[in-house]
Amino acid sequence: MSLALALAVQATATGSWLAIVDIPTFGLEAAEEFGIPLERVVRVDPPDRKATTSRNGTSRNGGEAWTELIGAVLDGFEVVITRVPLRLNAGMARRVQARMQDREAVLIALGRPGFGRCPDQPSPVSVDIELQAADPQWEGVADGWGHLRGRRVSVTSSGRRVPRPRHASLWLPGRDGRVATVDEAPILIHGVPIHASGQIHITE
Amino acid sequence: MAQSRLRMLTVWWAHWPIVAAGATRDVAIVLKANRVVACSPAAGASGVAIGQRRRIAQQRCPGAALLDHDPDRDARMFEPVVRAVGEFTPRLEMVEPGWLCVESRGPSRYFGGDEQLVAKIVDVIAATVGEDVDLTGLGVGVADGRFATAVAARLAAQRNRTGISESRRSGVDTRFGTGGAPAPCRAASGMVVPPGAARAFLAPQPVGWLQQTGDADAELVGLLTRLGLTRLGTLADIARVDIADRFGPPGEHAHRLACADDDRPSRAKEPPAERMAERVFDDPVVQLEPLVFVGKQLADGLVAELTLAGLVCTRLVVTSETEHGERSERVWYRASGLSAAAIVERVRWQLEGWVRGDPGSDGVSQPGGLSSGVVVLRLNPDELRHDGGDQLRLWGGLSAADERAVRAVTRLAGLAGEQAVLVPAWRGGRLPGDRYRWVPAITTDLTDPDDTAQRLRPRTSSMGPDGQQPSPKRPGTRGGSPSKRASVEAESARSAPWPGSLPAPSPAIVLDTRRAAVMDKEGLPVEVGGRGELTATPVTLTIGEREPQDITGWAGPWPVDEWWWDERRHRRLARFQIVTADGAAHLVAVERRHWWVLATYG
Fold first, then answer.
1. Is B535 helix (H, G, I), strand (E, B) or coil?
2. Could you tell me if residue B366 is left (phi over 0), alpha (psi between -120 and 50 degrees) or otherwise beta?
3. What is the pLDDT of residues A191-202, one digit of tens each?
4. Percent of chain B with pLDDT over 70
5. CB-based contacts of B495: which residues, under 8 Å, 6+ apart?
6. Considering the entire predicted model, what is its pTM?
7. Measured CA angle at B377 (ends B374, B383), to 5 deg
8. Which of A137, B135, B251, B508 is the most exposed place for a label (fewest CB within 10 A)?
9. Range B504-512 average pLDDT
10. Omega into B557 within 30° of 0, i.e. cis?
11. For A43, phi and psi rounded to 5 degrees?
C-alpha cells in the first residue's frame, strides 16, 4: 500500500487527482505524510462488493458494475488506486484498458490480479509495470523501546514496459516520512514516468 | 485617441437556465458543483439566491426540484431568441446563453427612440419563447458603453423581479386570471440611460458590479472594497495614473469602465489577418461532432499562438459556410477573455442549432437544418487584449483536471450512491484513522478553495468532538476581514497538541478491528497492568486466524485514556508497535485484556 501511495505522490503534488476505489482500509494520515495533498483525494466505495468477490453465478453482474464504475473513475481522475476484483474476464479488462489509454490515466492495482482463479488460466489483465517490494526492514524499535522510524525495502520492477527487471533499495517511508533512495545510485522508481498511461501492479 | 462611446443595448435574462429547462412555473433550482446558478421565481421567493450552497438552498426551499447545470441545453434554447433579435439588429454579440449585446444606434433610430426599441425587443422575445414563459428575470438596458448597459440590464431585471414579488406580498396581484392560477408575468423591465449620463448613472453603484459582468475578478474587487472604494464613483474620481500604479492593468481597466470611458477593453489591438484560424473541408461535413472536433483543434492552436504572444482574445467571430452558401456567423464576447475550452463551447452552441435544425419554442424540430454539408469553419479573433493583467489565470481558478474530477464525482455519486463517494475532512484525534474522517463529496463544494481549506484545515479551534465545523468566511464580503487573526486561529486548530498521539510515520493500512493475540514465551497472553507495566515480554503475535509470527521488535506501551469524564465514551487502551519476523509492522492495542490490531504499516 505504501508503494502505491509513493507512486501517486509526484502526480498529485502537481495537480492530478487521486481516486481510491474499493480500499476501505486506506490510511489518510500516511498519504498526507508522503506528500499527497488531501484536497485532491476522493474515495469511492463500490456497492455490492460481495457481488464482485463471490464465486458463484452473480459474478457477472459484479464485474460489469465494477467495469462501469472504474470507467467513470478513469474519466475524471488521473491516478487511481484500486484492487482488481476476482471475477474480471478478458473482455471487461480490455475495455478498462482501452479507457485508460484514452484518458492517459494510471491505474495502480494492489495484489495479484485474478487471485483465486485457476492458476493455469493466464491473467486477463496485462500489466505495464509490476512492482514488488520485498525484504522489508523496519528501523527504530528494539526490545520494548523506541518507535518505528523508517523502513527499508528492496523493490523490483518488471513487466511489459521494463525490458530488464531492475532493483532498488528504498526508504518507504524514511525518517522524514517520505520516500527516498537508500544510496545515491539513480533510482528507477522515479524514472518510471508517472504520467504514462498504464497499469501497475504491486505485490507486497 | 478619441474613444467612441458606442450606444449599446444589453438583453439579460437572470435565470435563463430555469427558462431553458422549462421550469419557470415550478419551484426549481439549477445547481452547478453544489452551488445555485439559477432558481425559479417561486424558489426565489422562499429565499434561494444565486451562489448559495445546495444545503442552504434545500433548507430554504425543501420541495424544490433540483436540476443539473446544462450549458448546451441553455444555448440550444437561447438560439431562437438570438435569431429573433438578430433579425432587426444586425450587429449582435453573444456573451453566454441569456446575455446578448447589440449596437443600438441604428435600430433605435429606426424604431423611433430607445424606449420603443426596448419595447420592441421585449415583444419579440416574448413572442419567441411562447405564452407560458414567465419573463420575470428579463431585463433590457440601454446606455453608452458595454459595461454601463450590462449594469443597466441587470438592474432592470432585478427591479422586475422585486416588483413582482412585492406585488405578491402586498396582496395586490393583478395577474390573476379567471382560473385562479397566477398567469406568468409578461412584462419585462427596461432601463434607459440617456446619452452622456452613463458616468453619473454608474457613480452610486457598488464596485461589485465589475465582478458580476466579468470585467474584474474577486481579488481586485475585494481589495477595492477593503481600501474603502466601495462605489464606482469613488473609483472614478481617483486619477487613472494613480490607479494604474497601484493596481496595474486590471485596475486601469476597472477605472476605465467606472468612468464609462471605454466600450472596448484597454489597449485593444486590431489583429492582423494572419491570426485567423480556418479549416476548409475537402468533403462537406454534415454532422456536428466532427465540426466541433475541428473547432477544438482550431481553438487550441489559436489560443496557443495568442498566449505565446502574450495576448488573449476577448471578441471572436465564428463563421461557418456550407457548399450552397448558407452561412452562420456570430460574434462572441467575453470580458475576461476566451479560453480554448470556452471557444469550443461556443462553437458547439452556435453550430448545434444551425446544423441540426434548431427546435422551435414548442420543442418540435423545424424541418431540415442544412441543405448541404459544411465546407468552411473559421475562427477570427476580432479583439485582443494583453494577457498581463489577467489574474484569473495567474492563480486561483480551476484547472482542467479539477473540473474533470468534479464532474466525475457527480457522476460516480449517481452510479454508486451519494454515501459511496467520500472526501477527507479534518476531525482530530490520536488513534489511527481518527485524525480525518470521510464525508460524502456531495455535501462539499470541491470547486471552492475556501470550502476545501475549511474542510481540511479548519480555521477556528472551536471544534466539537463530532468535528462540527463553523461556516467558512468568504473573503471580500465584509469591509475588513481580519486576516491576521484568521491565520493565527488556523494554526491553532491544526497544530493543537494531541498529547499521546504517535509520531510519524503513520500506518498506511487502517483496519476496522482485527482480533489479535500476543503471547509470551510460555504461550500465555501478555497483559498490561494499570500503570502500564507488562506481565511478560511479548514473543509471538497472532492476527486473526493466521499463523503466529515471531516478534522481532516491539515498543510500547503507550497508554491512551480518552474521555475519562464521559461514562459512555471512556476508552482506556495501550498501544504497541510490533514488528514480526516476516517484516510486517503493526500497531496493536490492548483494551480490557483484549488485543487487536489497530493498523498495519503496509
1. coil
2. beta
3. 333 323 345 555
4. 80
5. none
6. 0.55
7. 150
8. A137
9. 69
10. yes
11. -115, 135
Question: How near does any CA of chain B get to the CA of A95, in Å?
Answer: 18
Distance from the B502 Cα atom to the nearest Cα atom in chain A, whole angstroms: 9
A135 touches A154 (CB < 8 A): yes
Per-residue pLDDT of chain A (204 residues; tens, 9 = 90+): 888 888 888 888 888 899 998 888 888 888 888 888 888 899 998 876 544 444 444 445 666 778 888 888 888 888 898 887 666 677 888 888 888 887 778 888 887 654 444 444 555 566 778 888 888 888 777 777 777 877 888 888 887 777 888 888 888 777 666 777 775 433 333 333 332 334 555 543
**Confidence (pLDDT) at A113:** 53
Give first-to-last CA distance, chain B, whole Å: 70
- Asked whether the beta carbons of B121 and B149 are under 8 A apart, the reply is no
Say if CB B568 and CB B562 are below 8 A apart. no
The cell numbers describing A145, all together, are: 523501546
Q: Which of residues 123-182 of A touch B (CB under 8 A)?
A: 135-138, 140-151, 173, 177
Interchain CB contact of B599 with A (< 8 Å): yes
- With an 8 Å Cβ cutoff, are B404 and A76 in contact? yes
User: SS3 string of B541-563?
Assistant: EEECCCCCEEEEEEEEEEEEEEC
Helix A59-76 and helix A90-103, axial crossing angle in degrees, nearest 10 = 10
- Per-residue confidence (pLDDT) for residue A154, from 0 to 100: 86
For B394-490, strand residue ranges (E) read 421-426, 436-440
Distance from CA of B330 to the nearest CA of A (A): 32
- Beta-sheet strand order (sheet of A180-181): A180-181, A166-171, A146-158, A129-141, A198-203, A106-110, A79-83, A18-21, A41-44, B421-426, B436-440
Q: Which of A15, A45, A135 sits opposite B401 (nearest CB)?
A: A15
Residues B313-324 have pLDDT tens digits of 888 999 999 888
Give the mutation candidate from B419, B438, B498 for the A interface (greatest A CB count, under 10 A): B438
Distance, CA of B151 to CA of B233 (rounded, Å): 14
Cβ atoms of B439 and B426 closer than 8 Å: no
Q: Is B422 on the interface with A (CB under 8 A)?
A: yes
- Given CB atoms, is B412 within the 8 Å cutoff of chain A? yes
Helix (H, G, I), strand (E, B) or coil at A40: helix
What do you get for the CA distance between the two ends of chain A, in Å? 8
DSSP-derived secondary structure for B213-275: TTSS-HHHHHHHHHTT--BHHHHHHS-HHHHHHHHHHHHHHHHHHHTT--SS-TT-BPPPGGG
- CA–CA separation, A203 vs A111, rounded Å? 5
Cell numbers that stand for B286 in this block: 454534415
Query: Which residues make Cβ contacts (< 8 Å) with residue B382, sequence separation at least 6?
Result: B271, B313, B315, B316, B317, B331
Peptide bond into A193 cis (omega under 30): no
